[in-house]
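Q: A reviewer asked whether we had any structural model of the full assembly, not just the individual parts. We don't, so I'm hoping you can provide one. Inputs are below.
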Amino acid sequence: MTNRGSGEERGKMKGIRELAEHLDISIGTVSRALNGKPDVNEETRKRVLEAAESLGYVANQSGRALRKGATGVIGFMMQTGSEITGQGDTFFMSVFDGVQTVFARHKLDLVALLCSSEEDPNDYLKRVVARGFADGIILSATRRHDARFELLAKRKIPFITLGRSLTDVGQPWLDLDFEGMAEASIDRLVSRGHKHIAVTRPHDDMNLGYVFADQCRATLARHGLHLDERHVFRSTPNEAGGYQIARELSALEDRPTAIVLINEAITVGLYRGLVEAGIKPGRDMAIIGRQSPHSQFLSPRLTSFSLSLRDLGIALAESLLATMPAFADYYPARSERFLWPMALVPGESD
Amino acid sequence: MTNRGSGEERGKMKGIRELAEHLDISIGTVSRALNGKPDVNEETRKRVLEAAESLGYVANQSGRALRKGATGVIGFMMQTGSEITGQGDTFFMSVFDGVQTVFARHKLDLVALLCSSEEDPNDYLKRVVARGFADGIILSATRRHDARFELLAKRKIPFITLGRSLTDVGQPWLDLDFEGMAEASIDRLVSRGHKHIAVTRPHDDMNLGYVFADQCRATLARHGLHLDERHVFRSTPNEAGGYQIARELSALEDRPTAIVLINEAITVGLYRGLVEAGIKPGRDMAIIGRQSPHSQFLSPRLTSFSLSLRDLGIALAESLLATMPAFADYYPARSERFLWPMALVPGESD
DNA sequence: CATAGTATCGTAAACGTTTACGGAAGCCAA
DNA sequence: TTGGCTTCCGTAAACGTTTACGATACTATG
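A: Here is a predicted structure for the entire assembly that you could use as a starting point for your response.
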């Protein structure tokens, strides 16, 4: 209204108002046309769409978000540095890929919220939430006791977690089926004659350490075998941690003949450490681990548990959408807790 | 004004207006107090801050962004899948870490924009830009001809690229000093008696392939040596690619005695392929590569070029800020083009 | 005392959308 | 003709901030 008609032709598109003036239509109609609302003449809609295209108009998302009370953004929080998660970064990237495809279908934008390994995840999430950034959030690398759950629940932000936790606020979660992996790997090793089997587990604060080691113990018991507590190895879940485990292993007087690795990041370090100690992986020590981009290029090729990370991401996204009221017509509400199965792909290492 | 005084105490905080009513102050003053503006009594400011804290008020970012015309978000675009970039994902994660710390100081939020390997990067960026998502953008995995540059330039969005390109729209960039790496590695190998040296280069569309191979050629020439074109290997920059290179290498009748790897993702595959062909890395074939989290745990330990990814990220962030008018007082304007040096860390593989 | 200056605050207009509501036209049946 | 539908569109009120501007009270200065 200040500089009306100053130069509507060549000026850069400023907003829906200019577009409306150009078309000599009210801005309400323009908005309805762009948003595919029913009560607008199909011919007018075509005019609007064409004008928007040719003038390069794109809706201002701040205005839209302000009015609609939703940002149309979903955040996927991960932590940088495998020292934390025990998964290689490619793990999360692939899951992200799957999540992405689902949200794209609903015109939701997915961004990765990468928490530095130096920052406290709770503080980081607090900042993100305060920003009102996302309509929904995916949490990964969950802890045994995870304060992030309560934070999101209190703010009523829909979320789902990749990973279990003792902290339960009723949100859905997905997790890898570590129980199944424990059972299958122990069964396999025992059937191949191993009686002294070591297992790894990550950080104390991570839940899966317990379920995995416990399930290994139970399965061994089923076979009449015993899990020696000195054969439960804990380390930083990265290459150096694997190397460290190998050194501890080689120092034992009654060394186990097999080991099951719960995460993928330690594998290379473990291989190196064993070789240095004169223990040949696959011959002197059976190894079962988790699949990663390079596990099949190790020598010996790693016998590992694999899964479709992309499909896991898809399931994750759909479960999140199912908790969001705005998508109730697409995904009926449910609060799912699901253990994602893994398949053993035989290699040369066991 | 509709339901004034309905229940200001227990109701959830709705906005700055309710906070103002609670304090019996105008919303203008509340806003100024929260934003640290000078013309507000220090005692009132304290009251406001305390009330905001206790009532859990956080400013709605959509409203703020709408009014200020800036979102306070910076986007770091990466591609998932090392098949594209030739860098492991940890590479970008670490750089991201450095970028993060800089932006956090300026209360800017950094998000990762992960483009699926299946989607066209230009389309992806177009979507992001249309969303008016970010005040600034960092581009990685640049191509030789990169349409993203013009897109951002046209929309006048400040950006910087990690990686060079022939497409130059005047933006600043940072890149690894591949020329320096080529020179140093060739010098080293030649001084150790190698005369037949192979090099790798990534996808045709990637610029660094040319600068690297060309610099290797030039350095070899300086030593009176010749780079056999059949010894310039191109492959998908991942483990499988490295394996493929090893097979091609072993099939050559006059096999080179050394190879320089421009990226890190192919290393494991190359090792495996060589071993399978009966060529022992480090003894039958000298290898110089790029450092990665597991390169020092390979057998033999990889001789590699390393750099501080975090520092690189910091430099990247500061260069971007220097192009943003809003931060002109912190970082004087400049358009920097910088080659980031790498240092050779000796291993056992050459 | 008059005036100027300063410190502090309230008022109201933006920012760019979406959407509830109502109005105008056209059509059809009674 | 009247009344009721349907189809289409314009009007204007939100959404929650920030900030230019002006108003008030107080202090200092002449």
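A: Points you may want to mention in the reply: Residues 25-29, 32, 39-41, 44, 63, 65-69 of chain A lie near DNA strand D (CB under 10 Å from a C1'). Chain A touches chain B through 53 residues (CB under 8 Å).
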